[in-house]
Design goal:
The chain has two domains: about 35 residues; about 100 residues, Nucleic acid-binding proteins (OB fold (Dihydrolipoamide Acetyltransferase, E2P)), CATH 2.40.50. It contains three helices and seven strands. The protein has a five-stranded mixed beta barrel.
């Protein structure tokens, strides 16, 4: 084997190893990536059941139900579609009906969203930018001031 051929084999093997490492890294990132969906997005393009994702919208008026064991059920809406949500744990102090919310969890086969974390808006004027964008795409705004709520950085 000539020196040139040996060098080309080493370079080729190095590129092959680099490509395999890049493919493994991208696969790992894909598994840990959290996608954001509005209720309308979930109804139009449902992700695979069991995949971790975030949903955002407004807690529908009259939908909040608590049981005696610490579980809460409510519906998240973007005024075009609605997603039922269940959560077991302590809700944020600012969580209430008619307010913006982002929930992280998994969608079941039955279309029920099981939240592992629930985030409420920070003050009376704040709405996460993902929720504001989803409501704007749905063509629905419920601004209190006329321009709509200021957008935040996400959560």
């Amino acid at each position: 084997m000539t020196r040139k051929r040996r060098r080309m084999m080493v370079v080729g093997l190095g590129l092959l190893c680099l490509g395999a490492a890049a493919a493994l890294a991208l696969t790992a990132f894909e598994d840990n990536l959290l996608f954001f969906y509005s209720p309308s997005d979930l109804h139009s393009e449902a992700p695979p059941p069991g995949r971790m994702l975030r949903i955002g919208g407004i807690v529908e008026e009259g939908s909040l139900e608590r049981d005696g064991e610490g579980s809460v059920a409510f519906r998240v809406t973007d005024f075009a579609s609605t997603v039922p949500v269940t959560y077991r744990g302590i809700l944020p102090d600012l969580f209430r009906e008619g307010q913006g919310v982002v929930a992280q969890g998994r969608l079941t086969d039955a279309g029920l969203f099981q939240a592992e974390e629930v985030l409420a808006r920070h003050d009376e004027n704040y709405m996460p930018s993902e929720v504001a964008d989803a409501l704007e795409r749905a063509g629905v705004w419920r601004p209190e001031s006329g321009e709509g709520p200021p957008r935040g950085s996400g959560g």
